[in-house]
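Support request from a user on the community tier.

User writes: "When I paste my structure tokens into the form, the page sometimes reloads and wipes my input. The last time it worked, I copied everything first. Here is what I submitted, just in case something in the input itself triggers the reload:"
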């Protein structure tokens, strides 16, 4: 039996109660593989952004024992460019090698402490402009749900905390365990797309003139070659109108969305089948194994073989 992985959640004043509870709810559903503790910077009760405070059982000393530290979000009125002294002292307790995770505005703490300098990161899209102004040294990407940069992970707002915690379980123990946890929490084990689909855009009414029909047709026919013209014809629109409406409704271009769906379908097949890479490529509409490898590496930075080995164990070289 592997040692229990300790997750310590660092709650700060103004914390959002929902996100504060996400690590405990998700990690503790993994059949004893994780232990979750909650602490504050001084061991005192923490004010939430709601009409109540929370009493925590631990002070910053708990951070010394953490394998993973999670900083949940707090109200934007408490966001600052500099780390308060108490927070600096608390972060100094984190052991070298511990994994750091932020949810939403928690990324401001990591950035202000210099822990994101030169690294990719994300935060809630509503505070992305402020974050970029304050911390230009961070490679901010506000379009994704979370970013895994090895020992530092950052996620977007609210439910993306669920996404990053499930991702960590998948990374630590494989997709079978992560899927089981997701079922227990009644959440999807993996959400398609990124923050772009949640950014506030003027979205047209869902009418027969929308692009939903074309998207559904595309998902049912991913194995077939298809062009922007094909998609536009299924929506009975001109190319220009279709591209504009699609981006308004989905938050990304048709081409980018189609590649994303094919990559996601390929990942599912890599996780759940022993099909050769070339066959998977054909089933999801890529020209061949080389094309699938290129798109998968662009999306998640690994080869099909490495991805399959991570989530299904060592397989024969033919896969």
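"...and here is what came back when it finally went through:"
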């Amino acid at each position: 039996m592997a040692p229990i992985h300790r997750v310590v959640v660092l709650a700060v004043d103004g914390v959002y109660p929902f996100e504060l509870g996400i690590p405990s709810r998700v990690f503790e559903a993994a059949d004893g593989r994780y232990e979750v503790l909650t602490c504050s910077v001084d061991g005192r009760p923490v004010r939430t952004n709601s009409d109540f405070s929370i009493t925590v059982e631990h002070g910053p000393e708990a951070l010394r024992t953490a394998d993973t530290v999670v900083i949940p979000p707090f109200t934007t009125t408490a966001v600052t460019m500099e780390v308060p002294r108490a927070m600096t002292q608390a972060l100094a307790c984190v052991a070298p090698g511990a994994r750091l995770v932020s949810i939403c505005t928690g990324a401001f703490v990591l950035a202000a402490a210099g822990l994101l300098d030169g690294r990719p990161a994300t935060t809630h899209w509503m505070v992305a402009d402020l974050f970029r102004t304050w911390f230009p040294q961070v490679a901010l990407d506000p379009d994704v749900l979370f970013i895994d940069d090895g020992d530092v992970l950052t996620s977007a707002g609210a439910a993306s905390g669920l996404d990053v915690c499930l991702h960590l379980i998948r990374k630590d123990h494989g997709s079978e365990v992560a899927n089981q946890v997701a079922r227990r929490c009644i959440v999807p084990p993996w959400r398609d797309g990124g923050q772009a689909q949640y950014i506030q855009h003027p979205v047209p009414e869902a009418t027969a003139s929308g692009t939903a029909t074309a998207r559904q047709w595309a998902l049912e026919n991913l194995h077939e070659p298809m062009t922007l013209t094909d998609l536009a014809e299924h929506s009975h629109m001109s190319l220009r109108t279709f591209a504009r409406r699609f981006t308004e409704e989905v938050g990304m271009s048709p081409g980018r969305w189609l590649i994303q769906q094919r990559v996601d379908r390929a990942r599912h097949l890599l996780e759940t089948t022993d099909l050769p890479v070339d066959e998977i490529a054909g089933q999801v509409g890529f020209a061949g194994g080389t094309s699938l490898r290129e798109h998968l590496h662009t999306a998640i930075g690994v080869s099909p073989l490495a991805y399959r080995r991570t989530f299904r164990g060592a397989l024969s070289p033919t896969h």
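Agent notes: The reload is a front-end session timeout and is unrelated to the input. The longest strand covers residues 5-11. Residues 199-207, 314-319 have pLDDT under 50 and may be disordered. Escalated to web team.
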